[in-house]
Amino acid sequence: MGLSPGITLLYLLAAVLFIVGLHQLSSPRHARSGNLVAAGGAVIAFVTTLFVLHHAILNLILMALAIVIGIPIGAIAARAVKMTAMPQMVATFNGVGGGAAALVAMVEFLRLPGGAAPLVVSISVVFAVVIGATSFAGSGIAYAKLQELMRGTPITYPLQQPVNAVVAAAIVVLGVLVVVSGVGVVALWFVLLLALVLGVAFVLPIGGADMPVVISLLNAFTGLAVAGDGFVLGNPVLIVGGTLVGASGTFLTMMMSEAMGRSITNLLFGAFGKLQVGPETAAAGHGSVRSGSAEDVGTLLAYSQHVIIVPGYGLAVAQAQHAARDLADALEKRGVTVEYAIHPVAGRMPGHMNVLLAEANVPYEQLKDMDEINDSFRSADVALVVGANDVVNPAARSSPGSPIYGMPILNADQARNIVFMKRSMRPGFAGIDNELMYDPKTIMLFGDAKDSLTKLVAAVKAA
Amino acid sequence: MSTQLVNEITIFVLAVFLGFEVISKVPTILHTPLMSGSNAIHGVILVGAMVIMARATGPLQLGVGFLAVVLATVNMVGGYVVTDRMLEMFKSRNRKQPGPQ
User: Fold this and answer.
1) CB neighbours of B25 closer than 8 A, spacing ≥ 6?
2) Average pLDDT of the residues in A238-256
3) How many CB atoms lie within 10 A of CB A82?
4) Which of A109, A121, A129, A244 should we substitute to test contact with B (largest number of B Cβ atoms within 10 Å)?
5) Using one digit for the tens of pLDDT, what is the confidence trace for A280-323?
6) What is the nearest CA distance from A427 to chain B, expressed in angstroms?
7) Among A76, A419, B34, B73, fewest CB within 10 Å belongs to which?
8) Which of A20, A107, A231 to mutate to probe the B interface, most B CBs <10 Å?
9) CB of A248 closer than 8 Å to CB of A22
10) Is A390 a catalytic residue?
11) Measured at the alpha carbon of residue A94, what is the angle toward residues B18 and A51, in degrees to the nearest 5?
12) Do the beta carbons of residue A381 and residue A416 sit within 8 Å?
C-alpha cells in the first residue's frame, strides 16, 4: 500500500520531531522541551494516521473506544506514580509497547490470506512478534522485581542455559516454518508463546539492582519490534521512530552499564552457571555488630571535622532529604565540613539522589560525584551511610563471586568511623550481605532514616 | 526487490546511524529520563495499531487489534507524561542552583 505524498511528508515531519526531541533529551538544559517536541511528533503522527484509515464504522468506533480507555490509564498511572517507583513505571510502559508491537504483527498476519505474504512481510512479522513479546514478558519480570513482588536476587535453577537454548531454538525453527510455509498461523501463536517464556527466562537471573540497565535494553528491543512493524505495514514513521529508539537505546544501555563499571555481558549473563550463595550462608562467618544510640552518634558527629553523607534508596523511601539537610546545617553551624557522596546508581535510577537533595535545597557544590570524593574518605572522620548499602559494599572490590563484583563503590570503609543508618540488617537491593556492617569501625543506627536523622539533629544541638 | 522496500531499507539504515549519533555524551543524571523519553517515542506503535484495527475483520482480529490499540495508547500517553514529571524535578534544581551559598 503506497502512501500519498502529503501523508508521507507529514510522517516525515513527525520523524524529524522525534529526532530533534531525542537529541534535546540528551542535554540537561533542553531535556524537558525535547520531550515536548517528541510528543508533538507523536500527535502529528496520530492525526496524520486518521486520514489513511480504512473506513469501517464498527472498527473505527471500537478503535476510538480503545483509545479513550488507554489515555486515562496511561495519564493517571504516570501522574500517580511515586518518584521512588519511576523505573518500574517505565518498565510497564515499555512492556505494553512491546506487547502492542507483537499484536500488531499478529493481526496483520491473520489478515493476510495464507501463503500470500511477501517474504519481507512474513520475516518482519516473525521478528516483531518475537522481539515485542520478549520485551513484554521481560518488562513484566523487571516490574515485579523492582516492585518487590518477587525476589530481587538473581534467580537461577539447574539446566537454566540448556533450557533457554532449547526455547530459543524452538522459536527459530517455528519462525522459519512460518516464513516458508503458508500455514503458519498456529506456528506463529506458538512463537508468541515461546517468546513470552524467553522474556521471563532472560530477566529472572538478573539482579534487581541491574534492572534499570535491563529496562533500557528491553526499551531498545521494543523500538526494534516497532521498526519491524514498520516493514510489515510499509509505514515510514514506524520504521524511523522504532529504529531511532532501537539504536539510541542500545547505545544508552552500553553507557548505563559502563556507569556501573560492568560489561553488558557480565551484567546480563553473569549469574548463569553458578548457583547463588544465599545471604544467610554468607553472613554466617561474620562477627558481631555494634549498634549505637542516636545520642552516641550525635556526639561523634558533633565533634568531627569532616563528615561525608552517603545517601541511598532508604533516604528516598523515608523522604528524609529535608532531615538530612537539617543535620548538615546543624553540623555546619558547629564548624563541621559536610559533603554528600553521590554514587552514580544510588537509589533506583541514575540521578535519583541529586534530584531528591536538590528538592531539599542542598547546595549543589556539596554534592560530589564518586570520582570526585573517593579520595576524601580517607581523611573523613565519619562516613554517614543513610539508607545506602550495595554502593558501599566492599565485596564489589574483594569477592569475585559476588553479583556486584567489579562495580565501582564509594570508599566509605576508609573513613575513620562509619555510621550505618538502616532499618534492619536486611541485605540491600542486590540481595547480598555487606561486610562493612561487621567492620569494627562501624556503628549501626537502626530505625527509619527520617526519624533517626531528626534525633541526630537534636543530639548534635545538645552536644 | 521493489522500490518501496529499497526505500524502507535506506530509511532504516540511516535511522540506525542517526540513533547512535543523536545522543552522544549523556550525563549519568539524564540516563533514566532519556530512557523514559525514548520509551515514549516508540509509543508511535499506536499508528500501526490504528491501521490494523481499522481493517481488521472478524472477532479475533478485532479483539486482538483492540488490545493492541489500548496498549499502544498507554505506552504513548503514559510515556510522555512520566518523562515530563521526571524532568520537572530537574527544572527546580536548575532554578535553585544559582541561589545563595
Assistant:
1) A26
2) 95
3) 10
4) A244
5) 344 444 567 788 888 889 989 999 999 999 998 888 878 888 99
6) 25
7) A76
8) A107
9) yes
10) yes
11) 70
12) yes
Cell representation of residue B63: 479483539
What grid cell was written down for A180?
A: 516458508
Chain A residues touching residue B70 (CB < 8 angstroms): 66-67, 69-70, 73
SS3 A188: helix
* Those residues with Cβ within 8 angstroms of residue A135's Cβ, 6 or more apart along the chain or in another chain: A94, A95, A97, A98, A99, A101, A199, A218, A219, A221, A222, A225
Neighbours of A375 (CB within 10 A): 10
Q: Could you give the CA distance from residue B97 to residue B99 in angstroms, rounded to a whole number?
A: 5
Interface pTM, i.e. ipTM = 0.91
Determine the 3-state secondary structure of A147 from DSSP.
coil
Residue-wise pLDDT for A143-164, tens only, equals 999 888 888 788 888 888 889 9
CB contacts of A81 in chain B (<8 Å) are: 82, 85
Measured CA to CA in angstroms, residue A79 lies from A71, A100, A383, B87 at distances of 12, 22, 36, 13
Would the CB atoms of A52 and B57 count as touching at under 8 Å? Answer: no
Helix (H, G, I), strand (E, B) or coil at A341: strand
Pairing of strands A382-386, A306-311: parallel
Which among B43, B73, B80 has the least Cβ separation from residue A35? B80
